[in-house]
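Researcher: Structure prediction, please.
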Amino acid sequence: PMPRSPEFPPPGQRHPVILPDGRAHADTVFLSAVLEHPNIAVGGYSYFTDFDHVSDFAARLAPYLYPGAPERLVIGRFCAIAHGVRFITASSMHPMGGISTYPFRIFTRADISSYREECGARGDTVVGDDVWLGFEARVMPGVRIGSGAIVGACSVVTRDVPPYAVVAGNPARVVRMRFDAATVARLLDLAWWDWPIARILQALPAIEAADVAALERLAPVSHAADANGT
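Model: Predicted structure follows.
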């Protein structure tokens, strides 16, 4: 494998943005360096910026997700998560199968297994790779956001988002697709976010120019073979 570039911060670095005066930007963090929660999995290089000087990043991002909850939050690699984004996971939900939605059992220390089963049925919240979640976006329980998607500021995502879609609004709807279906398929096959960081930086001009053919030529051998069906 190609060596890690010394010019790009490793995913375990807490504060990856260094300001012109040499200070670290204290409100921007690589999530893999700061999250320690058994129900949250996050890929390398995904970052979160919050201007309220957060101390507990798990509680900030997913305030209802408690250790041992029946659902998980899974975030891919190279995601950009803006200030105010919240994941409203399944454990936020009240019982909806009966006449009342009031959670009586949590106040009486009664058996809440039925609540857990109902929450768990909504499934995990999953964010793919290279997803941009804009300012104060809300992601609702059990939603899956495809790789390469963009979620507009203040959007409320209530349903799954296709890869490389741009969604906005409340409820969030697809505004447009970033690429045609054939190009999306090629990009998903390439999965550049899984390449070694040195190779990604080498391919940066192709990524920035949306030159898929050039990106394919730069793919590591294993990815190129997979893309060709071998």
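Model: The longest helix spans residues 181-190.
Researcher: Thanks, that helps.
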